[in-house]
């Protein structure tokens, strides 16, 4: 029996309209009744997740910013990791051949250089909003992570540029097909979940995790029970072919899978 359950948000717990379904919320509460600890492991900011937790009425640990922060159920910072000032300065002040927009995240929130209302659709439930600012004026020591949002093929070309310049001094990953993230070295959801499980006196073998994107790869590959969404990125499925694939987030597949796991674990699972 898993003792700790970790959930990605977008494309996993959340439906395509960026809201959580009632069946999913009910199932998460059933896990808590079984004394299974919950953690939400997401690229979203902790300020947004705290608001959502209040709406969900759930006690959960938070792994936010793709592993850059871990917070306790009471809001205490258990772990933090930021881009090195050298890398942040290099990314912010270099000229990149891309049409993608750049976004900076730190403890104050989400900062970008121009109005992009289409990006706010993913945050309609929480009301989380970016701050407008010239990104070049942000002190390099105040940068947690940097994201580029745009067309996937353009981002793939950008990733080659970033790899050539940054090398092994940063961790690059796709948190969605249209979002490329630059994170501190060694920073990912899997390493953060390892820190959290140790804090709780557990091992990663005691954990189950659900995800759909490449920023979930380390987490899903390290836990005792990793589960991939049916709507997951093809690259994630290809890199973790031994893991089970369940249904689509549109159909609240996490709830469907967990209900089976809780009620009829002796019967082989079949996606809805």
Give a brief outline of the structure:
This protein is α/β, with parallel strands linked by helices and 272 residues long. Helix content is 30%, strand content 21%.
Textual characterization of the structure:
Helices cover 30% and strands 21% of the residues. It is of the alpha/beta class and 272 residues long. The chain has a seven-stranded mixed sheet with strand order 5-4-3-2-1-12-13. Helix 2 links the parallel strand 2 and strand 3. Helix 1 runs parallel beside helix 8 (253-263). The radius of gyration is 18 Å and the shape is globular.
Tell me the number of helical segments per DSSP (H or I, 4 or more residues long): 8
Task: List SSEs in N-to-C order.
Answer: EHEHEEEHEEEEHEEHEHEHH
Helix content: 25-40%
Largest sheet composition: 7 strands, mixed
Nearest-integer average pLDDT = 95
- What is the CA-based Rg, rounded? 18 Å
Bulk shape: globular
Q: What portion of the residues fall into strands of 2 or more residues?
A: 15-25%
What structural category do the secondary elements indicate? alpha/beta
């Amino acid at each position: 029996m898993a003792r700790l359950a970790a959930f990605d948000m977008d494309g996993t717990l959340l439906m395509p309209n960026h809201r959580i379904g009632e069946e999913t919320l009910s199932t998460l509460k059933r896990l808590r009744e079984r004394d299974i600890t919950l953690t939400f492991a997401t690229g979203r900011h902790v300020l947004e997740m705290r608001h959502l937790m209040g709406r969900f009425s759930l006690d959960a640990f938070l792994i936010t910013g793709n592993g850059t922060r871990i917070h306790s159920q009471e809001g205490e910072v258990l772990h933090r990791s930021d881009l090195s000032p050298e890398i942040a300065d290099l990314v912010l002040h270099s000229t990149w051949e891309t049409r993608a927009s750049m976004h900076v995240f730190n403890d104050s929130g989400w900062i970008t250089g121009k109005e992009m209302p289409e990006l706010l659709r993913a945050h309609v439930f929480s009301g989380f909003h970016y701050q407008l600012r010239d990104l070049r004026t942000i002190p390099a020591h105040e940068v947690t992570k940097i994201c580029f949002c745009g067309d996937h093929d353009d981002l793939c070309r950008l990733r080659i540029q970033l790899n050539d310049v940054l090398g092994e001094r940063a961790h690059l990953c796709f948190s969605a097909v249209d979002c490329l993230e630059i994170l501190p070295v060694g920073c990912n959801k899997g390493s953060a979940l390892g820190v959290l499980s140790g804090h709780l006196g557990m091992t990663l073998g005691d954990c189950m995790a659900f995800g759909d994107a490449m920023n979930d790869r380390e987490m899903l590959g390290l836990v005792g029970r990793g589960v991939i969404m049916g709507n997951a990125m093809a690259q994630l499925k290809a890199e973790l072919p031994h893991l089970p694939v369940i249904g689509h987030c549109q159909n609240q597949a996490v709830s469907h899978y967990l209900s089976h796991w809780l009620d009829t674990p002796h019967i082989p699972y079949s996606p809805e």
